[in-house]
Amino acid sequence: STLYKAWLQDERKPEGDPFDTYRRLLGRIVVKGEQHARVLSTAVAELINGLQAMLGIQPEVLNELPQEGSCLVLRTAAEPVSGLAHEVPRWDTGRDAFALRWVSADGTERMELDGTSASGVLYGVFRLLFGISRGWEPVRLVTEEQPANQLRMINQWDDADGSIERGYAGASIFYREGEIVRDLQRVRDYARLLASVGINAISINNVNVHERETRWVTEEYLPEVARVAEVFRDYGIALFLSINFAAPLSLGDLDTSDPLDEGVRQWWAEAATRIYRHIPDFGGFVVKADSEHRPGPFAYGRDHADGANMLAEAMAPFGGLVIWRCFVYNCMQDWRDRSTDRARAAYDHFKPLDGRFHDNVLLQIKNGPMDFQVREPVSPLFGAMQQTNQMIEFQITQEYTGQQRHLCYLVPQWKQVLDFNTHAADAGAEVKHVVDGSLFGMKYSGVAAVSNIGDDESWTGHPLAQANLYGYGRLTWDPELSAERIAEEWADLTFGDHPEVTHPIREMLMASWSIYENYTAPLGVGWMVVPHYHYGPDVDGYEYSRWGTYHFADRDGMGVDRTIAKGTGYTSQYFSPNKEMYDSLEKCPDELLLFFHHVPYSYRLHSGKTVIQHIYDTHFAGAEAAEELMHTWAAPALRDRVDPRRHAAVANRLAEQAEHAKHWRDVVNTYFYRKSGVPDERGRTIY
Ligand code: BDP
């Protein structure tokens, strides 16, 4: 169905140009490359299927360049093609790059797709198919590209019982009733979607590893995991597992999981050997340790470097990686003194360990210091650890951003994070250059994100949430792409090239993050959601609990004082001038004011409004704009061009969003009206 195909719609194209040009050009495909590389076979198969479906042609596959006539040449780096002048592109990083060229001379037309690897060819094939799908002329497809980031990763938070932690699109496509599913067709279709936007790594189980998934590294389950690895291998995607740090203990093999214990080290060395016997190209481990009740090295008086390095030694002989998450804070604390500010925790834990990690360890750092809120500052760990491999972690699944019931296109948020200048160096110190490895010359680096898919027909529950998965891949490939451009590509590929449809969709996507922010928690303060579920308004839901998440609203004012002089001192974790900017009430950007400062309701923002009036205005505006989204979608020019099922699926979500946005508006406005006693300047109804 169109819902299922997402951005890989392969609708038959009409007669006429540019499609006839492609029919002429692509009737013959010359393939040169590692003949047995499965990824290359995948590329050829994808190409042939795509061309058959969209152009109705049956391309012939050749080994050599034909004497005359048009063709497409696919090749990987090492393969010379006689009679072909063009040089294969050479990039210095050895990443999976590709070049697409269109050659028209002496009456022959030819397209050439060169990859530095089979994966490069696969990415080029998808780009070619995207171009055809969008009806672009061949000359517009000419490009040379290499991914900016080395690891472009997806984290599944799927559990063996088939549920997905923070999943909003149905059940797991990987597991059912404690087992890996027999039929991996859906997993294969997922691999295809991911590869089409350049993803090259995936961890297939939740970072919270329970009893069952602890067994994925045992002889009993590895053949099963290997089946999944095989599917992803075909698409150039390396498989990783989240592991339980206490596995030797939990599985009953040892009576400790102390990382400095010889037996424990031996246990993991054997586990690694076993894993690589089943999966020779296994990517490595993802580890959540000493975080939210997960076991870790702390139990034995060891630190994160001891824990990570022990695993790294086990993986090193096989070239495996250890991705150690920095989402570490004390979730059993109340705010007793300034040192217990949760925002400080990751930096306080990890910064002192800089330089102690082995070179096959990467730290995976959430984009912000708290937890995927609609608005947070950038984590101060980026730039702070100059001798440690790092990657950033985003959340595609909309845990705090409307749970795929609300529209929230997250690419603009991610872009802001990647473009943030850490000032860790005089130049090139943006987060994107920390995570692409260029700033500090890291051996391994990249981007990871928590997936938003499940077994829903549309993959993502909300059909428009597919844009976040697509956008994540594209942005990770090239952080210089604009959020608008990504929205445009996605809308064209997903809905066909009808401006009456794609233009309003682009606008809806681009407006959606700010709409959601407007009717939810104001000015960077975060939370205010129903505890545990994280959906729907509950202003005090997390206010009197032990999770370190507060707004400190009283009758006079609100916000969290994180300044150096009077507050928690969190601002000191940034480099100058970010430190001074956030520390100063005057210089702090409005959108993060309450993250950094506690102010009276009458405090005037740079916008000229008081904090309390800002809260009222944004909540009325947000709810109104949410209703507007619904009307935009219902407009006949759009409605008549989208197939009814997809149209209805989106319309239902938007109706629900409009209703819930009003609820948010009323709960938040009422709360602050009652706390502050300050009426709305514009006299609107607040209950
Ligand atoms: C929080 C989620 C929780 C995750 C945790 C994590 O609420 O389900 O386990 O992050 O990232 O956002 O480890």
Automatic annotation (TrEMBL):
The keyword Hydrolase applies. GO terms for biological process: glucuronoxylan catabolic process. The active site is at residues 292, 371, 399. Pfam families: Glyco_hydro_67C (PF07477), Glyco_hydro_67M (PF07488), Glyco_hydro_67N (PF03648). It comes from the Bacteria. Residues 142-459 form the Glycosyl hydrolase family 67 catalytic domain. Gene3D superfamilies: Alpha-glucuronidase, C-terminal domain, Chitobiase/beta-hexosaminidase domain 2-like, Glycosidases. Residues 460-684 form the Glycosyl hydrolase family 67 C-terminal domain. One of its GO terms (cellular component) is extracellular region. It is an enzyme of class 3 (hydrolase). It catalyses: Hydrolysis of (1->2)-alpha-D-(4-O-methyl)glucuronosyl links in the main chain of hardwood xylans. Its EC number is 3.2.1.131. GO terms for molecular function: alpha-glucuronidase activity; xylan alpha-1,2-glucuronosidase activity. Residues 7-128 form the Alpha glucuronidase N-terminal domain. Keywords: Carbohydrate metabolism, Glycosidase, Hydrolase, Polysaccharide degradation, Xylan degradation. InterPro entries: A-glucoronidase_C_sf (IPR037054), GH (IPR017853), Glyco_hydro_67_aGlcAse (IPR011395), Glyco_hydro_67_aGlcAse_N (IPR005154), Glyco_hydro_67_C (IPR011099), Glyco_hydro_67_cat (IPR011100), Hex-like_dom2 (IPR029018). Homodimer. Belongs to the glycosyl hydrolase 67 family. This is Xylan alpha-1,2-glucuronidase. The lineage of its organism: Bacteria, Bacillati, Bacillota, Bacilli, Bacillales.
